């Protein structure tokens, strides 16, 4: 009887999810080299103010540790890692017209990648079914040998490769719902059949990649799912792609771990794109992915990417965490649109739709 009570108490006290963050992620600031740069520390400050006011129900905060360079080198070449480290030590500057490094940027990037890696470790150890990394700089544009698009190292790709190589995970599914194509993640796993990567993104904006016809290469053909949407696309178009394309493919793939590159710049208030999602749109996508993960018996982890209107970003993250930890069921009401019908015709060649 006592053992049963102890077990019940442990279940009641266990967190619904784990939130990883670190003060070092506030130290990276593109405005040091480009006044007006949209990727500011205020993005994280706004998120955590909103979560403090919310009270963090069901979520436990943990420090994001530094990644070791050997973990970065699971995805990135040693030369690339060394160049970013030495550039930061020398005071930094511009990598390209959008991407900057300051003295603190390398340290921030280590904690960003390290948070994603630690999240995967604890999820696979069964400490919680859900995780969220509130870290920066973002990662999904960083290619194996190239920093770009505000990104130095690819946090979600590094964590994915760590799960496969060091934790024995056989298959990982990554959904990228940032409004910009996750080109770095796509390139990291282009030739792979053990990672299914799906990106929903606005067509025709930075970085210009991610056409529907690009489905991966060689043994990875069919394991890259690019789902571009036109400017002005709102919740109906995005949820239709999730429901009619992404979830069926992921379910058939059968991953042991589900990760999300969680950018919130498809929100209608974001200054860098032209999609029309609302706060509730992200909450619904989160419920859909949570349902998928539950059906598969796989843990679910999210890593922050874009979102450049701080108030909107904070609201989106708060409602996403609420949706992930809450009991409200996912809706199944998105009609097939012209965009999703075209995607079904293309991706249905590789996965049952």
Q: Any idea what the radius of gyration is? A: 19 Å
Distance between the termini: 48 Å
Shape: globular
Order of strands, main sheet, comes to 2-1-5-10-9-6-7-8
Helix content: 40-55%
Overall strand count: 10
Number of helices: 11
Structural class: alpha/beta
Low-pLDDT runs of 5+ residues are: 3-11
Largest sheet report: 8 strands, parallel
Strand content: 5-15%
Q: What are the secondary-structure elements, in order, as H or E?
A: HEHEHHEEHEHEHEEHEHEHH
Average pLDDT for all residues: 95
Write structural notes for this entry.
By secondary structure, the protein is an alpha/beta fold. The protein is about 40% helix and about 15% strand. The protein contains eleven helices and ten strands. The protein has helices at about 1-15, 40-55, 70, 80-90, 105-125, 155-165, 185-190, 235-255, 280-295, 310-325, 340-345; strands spanning about 15-20, 60-65, 95, 100, 130-135, 170-175, 195-200, 225-230, 255-260, 300-305. The strands form two sheets. Strands 2-1-5-10-9-6-7-8 form an eight-stranded parallel beta sheet, sandwiched between helices. It has a two-stranded antiparallel ribbon with strand order 3-4. Strand 9, helix 9 and strand 10 (about 300-305) form a beta-alpha-beta unit. Helix 5 (about 105-125) packs across helix 6. The longest helix has 20 residues, at about 105-125.
């Amino acid at each position: 009887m006592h053992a049963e009570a102890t077990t019940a108490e442990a279940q009641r006290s266990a967190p619904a999810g784990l939130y990883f963050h670190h003060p070092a992620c506030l130290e990276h600031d593109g405005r040091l080299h480009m006044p007006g740069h949209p990727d500011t520390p205020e993005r994280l400050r706004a998120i955590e103010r909103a979560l403090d006011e919310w009270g963090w129900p069901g979520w436990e905060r943990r420090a994001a540790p530094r990644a070791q360079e050997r973990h970065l080198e699971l995805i990135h070449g040693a030369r690339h890692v060394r160049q970013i480290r030495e550039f930061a030590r020398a005071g930094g500057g511009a990598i390209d017209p959008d991407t900057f490094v300051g003295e603190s940027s390398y340290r921030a990037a280590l904690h960003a990648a390290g948070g994603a890696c630690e999240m995967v470790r604890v999820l696979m150890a069964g400490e919680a079914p859900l995780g969220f990394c509130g870290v920066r700089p973002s990662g999904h544009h960083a290619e194996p040998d190239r920093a770009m698009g505000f990104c130095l190292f690819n946090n979600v790709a590094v964590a994915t490769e760590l799960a496969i190589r060091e934790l024995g995970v056989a298959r990982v599914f990554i959904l990228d719902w940032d409004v910009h194509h996750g080109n770095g993640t796509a390139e990291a796993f282009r030739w792979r059949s053990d990672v299914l990567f799906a990106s929903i993104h606005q067509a025709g904006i930075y970085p210009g990649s991610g056409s529907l016809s690009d489905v991966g290469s060689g043994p990875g053909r069919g394991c890259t799912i690019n789902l571009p949407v036109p400017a002005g696309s709102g919740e109906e178009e995005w949820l239709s792609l999730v429901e009619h394309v992404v979830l069926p493919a992921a379910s058939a793939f059968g991953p042991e771990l589900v990760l999300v590159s969680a950018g919130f710049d498809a929100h209608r208030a974001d200054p860098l794109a032209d999609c029309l999602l609302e706060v509730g749109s992200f909450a619904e996508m989160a419920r859909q992915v949570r349902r998928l993960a539950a059906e598969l018996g796989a843990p679910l982890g999210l890593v922050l990417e874009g979102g450049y209107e701080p108030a909107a970003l904070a609201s989106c993250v708060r409602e996403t965490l609420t949706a992930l930890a809450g009991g409200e069921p996912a809706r199944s009401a998105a009609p097939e649109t012209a965009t999703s019908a075209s995607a079904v015709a293309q991706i249905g060649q590789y996965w049952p739709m």
